[in-house]
Amino acid sequence: MSLTLDDADHRLLAVLQNNGKASLQELAEAAGLSQSPCWRRIKRMEDAGLIRGYVARLDPKGLGLHALAYVFVTLIDHREETIAGFGRLVAREERIVECASITGSADFILKVAAKDPEDLETFLMKGVLATGMVRESQTHFILRQTKTRSPWPLL
């Protein structure tokens, strides 16, 4: 569902993208609204699926995840059951933190988190490649992340 957003909606979204724990009072002040209309706007955007949820952003290193990598995956074929099976693999594997279908020589790009390089290798060999769905993969370790998450542009 597509929503028409005005300046007050953009101000609300800007605050929420940077502070998902902002109080209704803070949000209302930022949008120039009273609390009831502010709450209704937020509820409308949640119901429409524009606001998908609220999460805490954690530090991967603090969780013991010292190996992050982008893995380009080419499937063995493009049959419906292969693509669906790969989708199920991605959904159940918590080490795969992002997945996108892409253009180019690979079919998908995965962002994978692991304890260390050896843990990543084990996961790829036993968790991804052993499925028989992957023809080829190419792994690129992330050396340093300079921008890990930023607000979506509110154009």
TrEMBL record:
One of its GO terms (cellular component) is cytosol. InterPro entries: ArsR-like_HTH (IPR011991), AsnC-type_HTH_dom (IPR000485), Dimeric_a/b-barrel (IPR011008), Tscrpt_reg_AsnC-like (IPR019888), Tscrpt_reg_AsnC/Lrp_C (IPR019887), WH-like_DNA-bd_sf (IPR036388), WH_DNA-bd_sf (IPR036390). Residues 5-66 form the HTH asnC-type domain. GO terms for biological process: regulation of DNA-templated transcription; response to amino acid. The keyword DNA-binding applies. CDD domains: HTH_ARSR. It comes from the Bacteria. One of its GO terms (molecular function) is sequence-specific DNA binding. Keywords: DNA-binding, Transcription, Transcription regulation. The keyword Electron transport does not apply. This is Winged helix-turn-helix transcriptional regulator.
